[in-house]
């Protein structure tokens, strides 16, 4: 029995965990009020309790299921490439400007697929920068600088 | 005659609002961009609207809504084009078009399939829009008498329907719904001023950015799964001149009936919550197969298999706007996003919108018609553009999509924090793919969580904490009854499948 590979068991645990956080936070940090005059803690408490129940139910159904539903195998490459690219864009957009942010986004995100060609990714990044500048800065009048130094 | 007079008055007000250069332009841009995104395999109207939502932040309210509705129509339509030409559904709702559309393409009649789809979709949407125009005022009048308890119960019904009907596991669907509602409580509580679940982050005091969340759970997940797949063959060899598209007299004769029946079926199901995503289109397909004189042709290129479901789908799009615009109760995730766009523009959705912003309301509805006319123009003579769109290799496309997502999220509040939220929601969406959890209930819970809490609090205040108000008011009692039976039914169905 490898419970933690059964996707419904993991989903149930996740629901239970989120519900637990909500209940604890609602109980200790926010006043409950009464049913007539509800405080800020009332609704989150209700949701949290419901989620605890859903979590238990999900796990119970998963355990009683006649065929175990395993988690699919997952390619981490595209996930890391896409999320990493957005992260790089976030770090660079204000510090370095639209051009460096876009080029690094393109260079990282292209790694989602193999074969990876740095030159093609760089070229695509430059083309995308030009397009983004045309569409967002010139067309939609957004306040983005192409190159920012030391800001 | 009052109804007819009111209809003409509304129509002329709508035309006045919608037929200005500015609004026609927004409509045109929305429909074209929607078509562009929708025609790409895997990207449907939900992704298209999430992608283009940030652009409308800085537009006037009417223009923003007109553009988003155009995106919806365009994307919905584009998905079918992809299904017919490649045999790969552009999005789940367009999967039914593959059944007969793709065989027609293989037989060299792809142009005819596209043409008939265009006509059927225009007729279907016209039926839906007409129904919307006639029924909306009546429903809004009734709705003015609704109390918070009624809204509360109706919202719950919509949410439960959207997260149990046609989804995987109903328990997990409801779980995601509650997670979405919990996310909606992040930030300042309007009633008490207390800041909830901010975990010490100042940026979270204004709540979670809807655009970051929608893009994270819909667009990022699509790009990641798309990037993981190989490059599909996307060659369309046929020519699509006007001559190749004209249906024969026989095609017309066989399509009229399905279009009318499909429109009726779609109009009915579209107005109900939780029935989007192509359920009604499959019903229409099955019905045409049953009624047809040559049922054996179905699945091998029967024109009825395009005309019926396509009219059905588009009639449903029109009537889906009825509860959304008159009651502020969206039946599916697309409607929920449009509702959120309304809130972003500072308009409180509900039955008052029609009287407080009549120009927006009727202008929007007339723009639906204009949008569908634009679709006809864009898709019969200009079909070649979309076919070329389809042939752009994915490896060039997805960096562009990721860039568009990033700039879009950043532009809503010029905030880098929103980009970090995007990364978090992107990671969440990948975890959800692993655990087979649905994003639609998450988003709907997030959008409707706040109005649900507010109406619940108000209902309890009015009844002095007496919960029986929910069963004493007929509207709320019926809604809750349906809600409970829906939950019971879907739970039993899923347990039977799993346990026996």
Give an overview in words:
The complex is a heterodimer of chains A (151) and B (500). Chain A is an all-alpha fold. Helices cover 65% and strands 0% of the residues of chain A. Chain A is built from five helices and no strands. In chain A, helix 3 runs antiparallel to helix 4 (98-109) and helix 4 packs across helix 5. Chain A starts with 6 loop residues before the first helix and ends in a 12-residue tail after the last helix. In chain A, 41% of the residues are buried. With 500 residues, chain B is mostly helical. Chain B has 22 helices and two strands. Chain B is globular and about 70 Å long. In chain B, helix 8 packs across helix 20. In chain B, strand 1 (187-188) and strand 2 form a beta hairpin. In chain B, strands 1-2 form a two-stranded antiparallel sheet. Chains A and B meet through helix 1, helix 2, helix 3, helix 4 and helix 5 of A and helix 8, helix 9, helix 18, helix 19 and helix 20 of B.
The gross shape of chain B turns out to be: globular
Question: Overall mean pLDDT score of chain B?
Answer: 86
Derived from helix and strand composition plus strand pairing, the structural class of chain A reads mainly alpha
Class derived from helix and strand content of chain B: mainly alpha
In quaternary terms, these chains amount to: heterodimer
The unreliable regions of chain B are: none
Order of helices and strands of chain A: HHHHH
Range of strand content of chain B: under 5%
């Amino acid at each position: 029995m490898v419970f933690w590979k059964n996707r419904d068991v993991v989903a149930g645990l996740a629901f239970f965990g989120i519900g637990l956080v909500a209940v604890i936070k609602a109980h200790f940090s926010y006043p409950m009020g009464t049913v007539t005059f509800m405080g800020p803690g009332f609704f989150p408490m209700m949701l949290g309790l419901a989620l605890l129940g859903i979590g238990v139910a999900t796990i119970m159904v998963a355990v009683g299921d006649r065929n175990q539903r395993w988690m699919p195998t997952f390619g981490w490459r595209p996930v890391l490439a896409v999320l990493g690219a957005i992260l790089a864009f976030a770090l660079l957009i204000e510090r370095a400007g639209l051009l460096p942010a876009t080029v690094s986004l393109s260079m990282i995100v292209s790694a989602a697929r193999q074969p990876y060609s740095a030159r093609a990714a760089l070229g695509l990044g430059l083309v995308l920068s030009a397009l983004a500048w045309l569409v967002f800065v010139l067309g939609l009048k957004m306040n983005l600088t192409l190159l920012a130094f030391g800001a | 005659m009052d109804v007819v007079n009111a209809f003409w008055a509304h129509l002329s007000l709508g035309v006045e609002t919608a037929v200005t250069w500015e609004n026609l332009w927004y409509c045109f841009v929305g429909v074209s961009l929607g078509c562009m995104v929708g025609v790409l395999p895997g990207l449907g109207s939900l992704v298209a609207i999430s992608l283009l939502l940030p652009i409308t932040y800085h537009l006037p309210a009417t223009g923003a809504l007109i553009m988003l509705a155009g995106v919806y129509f365009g994307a919905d339509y584009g998905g079918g084009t992809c299904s017919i030409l490649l045999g790969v559904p552009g999005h789940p709702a367009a999967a039914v078009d593959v059944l007969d559309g793709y065989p027609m393409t293989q037989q060299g009649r792809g142009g005819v399939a596209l043409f008939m789809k265009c006509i059927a979709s225009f007729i279907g949407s016209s039926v839906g829009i007409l129904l919307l125009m006639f029924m909306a005022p009546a429903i809004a009048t009734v709705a003015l008498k609704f109390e918070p308890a009624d809204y509360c119960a109706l919202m719950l019904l919509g949410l439960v329907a959207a997260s149990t009907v046609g989804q995987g596991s109903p328990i997990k669907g409801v779980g995601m719904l509650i997670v979405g509602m919990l996310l909606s409580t992040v930030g300042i509580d309007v009633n008490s001023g207390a800041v909830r679940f901010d975990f010490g982050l100042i940026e979270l005091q204004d709540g979670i950015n809807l655009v970051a969340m929608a893009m994270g759970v819909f667009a990022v997940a699509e790009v990641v799964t798309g990037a993981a797949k190989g490059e599909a063959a996307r060659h369309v060899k046929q020519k699509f001149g006007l001559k190749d598209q004209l249906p024969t007299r026989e095609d017309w004769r066989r399509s009229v009936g399905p279009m009318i029946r499909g429109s009726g079926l779609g109009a009915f199901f579209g107005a109900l919550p939780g029935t989007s995503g192509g359920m009604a289109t499959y019903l229409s397909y099955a019905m045409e197969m049953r009624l047809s004189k040559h049922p054996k042709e179905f699945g091998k290129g029967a024109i009825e298999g395009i005309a019926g479901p396509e009219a059905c789908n588009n009639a449903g799009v029109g009537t889906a706007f009825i509860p959304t615009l008159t009651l502020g109760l969206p039946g599916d995730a697309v409607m929920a996003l449009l509702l959120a766009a309304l809130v972003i523009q500072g308009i409180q959705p509900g039955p008052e919108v029609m009287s407080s912003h009549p120009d927006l309301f009727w202008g929007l509805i007339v723009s639906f018609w204009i949008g569908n006319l634009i679709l006809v123009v864009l898709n019969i003579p200009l079909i070649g553009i979309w076919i070329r769109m389809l042939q752009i290799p994915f490896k060039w496309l997805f960096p562009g999509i990721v860039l568009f997502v990033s700039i879009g999220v950043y532009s809503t509040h010029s905030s880098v924090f929103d980009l970090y939220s995007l990364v978090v929601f992107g990671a969440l969406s990948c975890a959800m793919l692993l655990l087979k959890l649905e994003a639609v209930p998450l988003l709907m819970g997030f959008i409707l969580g706040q109005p649900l809490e507010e109406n619940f609090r108000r209902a309890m205040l009015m009844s002095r904490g007496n919960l029986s108000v929910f069963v004493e008011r007929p509207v709320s009692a019926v809604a809750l009854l349906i809600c409970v039976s829906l939950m019971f039914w879907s739970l039993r169905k899923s347990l039977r499948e799993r346990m026996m």
